[in-house]
Structure formats: structure tokens, C-alpha cells
Design goal:
The chain is an alpha+beta fold. It is built from 9 helices and 15 strands. Bound molecules: zinc ion. This is NUDIX hydrolase domain-like protein.
């Protein structure tokens, strides 16, 4: 029996589904209604719905709510609550001047938002008995607003980034809301908030945080169109950026039009960067290889990992990373599952790699690893069973090291006599799932050879 408090992080298992294992941050409960992102009629109508809920971010930190006696959860504000932050209507399909409406015939202004804080439509949490809406159903974008909204059965979710609003304006609204609801509202570091998220909230949070981060990085002062250097603006309910040189009122120059006006450009759409997480297993399935990065918290060991490079399959990356980081040759591979990771926008692909433990492990190669060693199942189980065996929250390794995120350093704690031999990753991270599934004997490594 694994006793660590973080081992039992709530993970939704969809045993009868073809999806197999559902990781923390995955399995979104929302129908994203992606075909309606271009419909300002739909979006502006549901913004005003009393059922609508807002997930609010400030400098990448989610707004969390703590009741007088209840746990801390992801805060969901109503449209009435956030109204003072939204700016002038229309919320979507904004024209040149604040308060003006865009010409519906102009495709570069479909659900545009040029003024006010960034807003993203995340999707609809449908009532349990409702059908899942499809583009061909009563949710057709051609319906009028009233008909569409009358078909919405559930909770529409939006995200709102208040980073650039005046601090006084933000705190005034929060204080009023906190007082009315007898809750404490505060923006918490995303990794610190992870331990308070349910599976449902983790998936909504992951979608929202990755998009809010992408939008902020690309709209911030100094961030311009990668095609021509003009400022960018958002359209499609926050899911696309476009170059302002293509707006109908932009001054026409004699130079060539911006290349983003033609073809598909990945810097105008939200990106997801793939990473492989690799737990290396001996051919007899009795040992695993764990390593530690120099920048990780003291005594923390985990699976090896690396970014997928252009022109690589995920399998190629596994092979290259193990060779470059530890001088290890891969004998076989087994895929586990993937996990969205919203710090800032990664997809973690979990693999078991089989390797010969008698070959030397090298840590002098690319200077990333401080140490790497083989552990037996008993050693790993002793860590997982230890109440302090797993790292959590802010102590989790960063995959976006060097950018933006401010994570407090782990505080040095005095050594205790019953310290676990090392600390491992919790189960709400891909590496923790790979580790605990292997330790509990769920992994048949023979099929990888
Ligand atoms: Zn441009």
C-alpha cells in the first residue's frame, strides 16, 4: 500500500475508454466549441449569461478561492463579478476605436479583441444529460444569438488576464467579491496551486494557463508580428493572433504585404512544445535509472527528459536524449501516455526505455545531469511509501527554465534521521506516473523488447 499523501492525487481513470490513462491536467471536461470561436454573436451572447464562469489570471498566477472552512479551489467568478474589468462592449468583434463594432464581412476581425484585457473562450461544460454539441447540430454558427444561447445547456468558461489592469481596480473587485461570498481570494503561483486542483479543475486550468501565457508573451509591449514587426492583436475568441498591418484601417505602404496574410503561420496560433519523459528500465524489469539535474531541489531524482527537436519522432528524441545525457543505448521502448503541462505550454510524452544496467552511466557529457544511478524496486517503493518521499508544487522541476516564471527556491530543511534515500516526482507529473506504475508492477517491459 502506498501511503504518501501526494501519491493519491485524484486521477480520473477512464477504464472503458480508448483513451486509456488520463493524466493530471488532461481529460478536459469542456466541449471547446472551436467552430464557434469565429462567431461574435454566440460569444457576446454567452458572455452575458448568468451561468458563465471566469477563470482569472494575474501575471500567470490563477485566482484561487478559500472558503471559511473549505479547501482552496480554482476561483470561478461570474460575469457580474468581472464586469468592471471587461471594458466597453462589444467584448468580441471590436472595431478600430474602443466601443466600435467590427464590420462582420471583414475576416481579419472575426471575434476580434483589440481593446481591454485579454479574454479567451475556453469551452462549455455541458449538462450531464446533454448531447455533446457538434458543428452540424443546433449549435450552427448560422443561428441567431437567441436561438444559439437557448441551446446552451451547461456552464460556459472564459479566462481573463488582469495583469495589465490597474492594481487598485483589480483589488477593489476582488475585495467586494470576497466579502459578498465570505471567501478569501488570492493569486497563487501555478505550481503551488497544483495540489489544490481537482482533476476537472486541473484540465480547465491547463488550457487556460497555456493560452493566457501565450497571449501575454505575444501581446506584451515589445512583442510584434514575426512576419513584419507590426504589433499583433487577437481574434477568434483569443485563439489566434493577427498582424495589425492587415487591418482595414492600417496605413498602406509600398513595401510588400505581411507574409502572415497568406498561408498558415505557427507563430499566430497557440503552440505546444513536446517533451519526452523517459523512465529507463533494466531488461529484467528489476531496476530503473533516475537522474538529477543540477538545478533541481536537493536530493530530488526523476526520470530523464528532453525537448523534441525539429525533424525528430518522439522515439528518436528518447534515443538521442539518453545517449547525449547519460551515454545509454536504448534496447527497446514502450509508450505510456501524454500529459499537457501548462508551464508554459508543453505536452509531456511518457516512455519506458529498456537499457542494460551494466553499461557505464555517464554524467560528464552534456553537462545537464549532476548524478544518475540505478535503483531497485525495493528502493523506489521505500521512497514512494515514505511520507516525505515525493516533491510537490513549487519544488517540481521546471521545463521552461530561464523564462519568466518566478519560482521560489526550496527552503533548506534540516536533515532528519528518517529521511527517504531520495525524493521522487509526485503522481500529478508524468515522471511520477511512470515511476509509481513501474514500482507497483503494472509495467510489462518484455513487450518493449
Ligand atoms: Zn506582420
Amino acid at each position: 500500500m502506498l501511503r504518501s499523501p501526494f501519491y493519491n492525487v485524484q486521477i480520473r481513470q477512464i477504464s472503458s475508454s480508448a483513451k486509456g490513462h488520463t493524466n493530471f491536467f488532461a481529460g478536459s471536461p469542456l466541449n471547446r466549441l472551436s467552430w464557434l470561436r469565429q462567431s461574435p454573436i454566440f460569444l457576446n451572447a454567452i458572455v452575458s449569461s448568468p451561468a458563465t464562469r471566469w477563470i482569472v489570471f494575474n501575471d500567470g498566477k490563477p485566482l484561487m478561492a478559500t472558503g471559511t472552512s473549505g479547501p482552496t479551489t480554482l476561483a470561478r467568478l461570474s460575469t457580474n463579478d468581472v464586469r468592471p474589468w471587461l471594458g466597453l462592449e462589444p467584448i468580441f468583434s471590436q472595431g478600430q476605436h474602443e466601443g466600435s463594432v467590427a464590420d462582420p464581412e471583414v475576416t481579419s476581425l472575426q471575434s476580434s479583441r483589440l481593446h481591454g484585457p485579454p479574454i479567451i473562450f475556453l469551452g462549455l461544460h455541458e449538462d450531464e444529460n446533454a448531447m455533446h454539441a457538434l458543428p452540424s447540430s443546433e449549435f450552427s454558427a448560422k443561428k441567431d444569438a437567441q436561438a444559439m444561447v437557448s441551446n446552451v445547456h451547461g456552464t460556459p468558461y472564459f479566462s481573463l488576464d488582469v495583469t495589465e489592469l490597474e492594481e487598485g481596480n483589480v483589488s477593489e473587485v476582488l475585495n467586494e467579491r470576497a466579502e459578498a461570498g465570505s471567501v478569501k481570494l488570492e493569486f497563487l503561483d501555478g505550481r503551488a496551486a497544483m495540489g489544490s486542483l481537482t482533476q476537472f479543475d486541473s484540465a480547465v486550468f491547463a488550457e487556460a494557463r497555456s493560452l493566457v501565457d501565450w497571449s501575454a508573451r505575444n501581446r506584451r509591449v515589445g512583442q510584434y508580428c514575426a512576419g513584419c514587426g507590426s504589433p499583433v492583436y487577437t481574434l477568434w475568441a483569443g485563439w489566434k493572433h493577427a498582424c495589425s498591418s492587415l487591418l482595414p484601417w492600417a496605413p498602406r505602404t509600398t513595401t510588400k504585404p505581411c507574409p502572415t496574410g497568406k498561408a498558415l503561420n505557427n507563430y499566430l496560433h497557440p503552440r505546444t512544445d513536446p517533451v519526452v519523459i523517459i523512465l529507463t528500465v533494466s531488461p529484467d524489469n528489476g531496476k530503473i535509472l533516475l537522474g538529477r539535474n543540477k538545478s533541481w531541489p536537493k536530493n530530488f531524482y526523476s526520470a530523464l527528459a528532453g525537448f523534441v527537436e525539429p525533424g525528430e519522432s518522439l522515439e528518436d528524441t528518447v534515443e538521442r536524449e539518453l545517449w547525449e545525457e547519460a551515454g545509454i543505448k536504448v534496447l527497446g521502448l514502450k509508450y505510456h501516455s501524454t500529459q499537457p503541462w501548462p508551464f508554459p505550454a508543453n505536452i509531456m510524452a511518457g516512455f519506458y526505455a529498456v537499457a542494460d544496467p551494466s553499461q557505464p552511466v555517464r554524467t560528464d557529457l552534456d553537462n545537464e545531469l549532476e548524478d544518475a544511478r540505478w535503483y531497485t524496486r525495493e528502493e523506489v517503493l521505500s521512497v514512494l511509501n515514505h511520507t516525505e518521499g515525493l516533491k510537490t508544487g513549487k519544488d517540481a522541476p521546471k521545463w521552461d527554465s530561464g523564462v519568466e516564471e518566478k519560482v521560489e527556491e526550496a527552503k533548506e530543511v534540516p536533515e532528519k534521521l528518517d529521511e527517504p534515500p531520495f525524493k521522487g516526482p509526485p503522481r500529478n507529473a508524468m515522471a511520477g506516473v511512470l515511476l509509481s506504475d513501474w514500482a507497483s508492477g503494472k509495467v510489462d517491459i518484455k513487450s518493449a523488447l
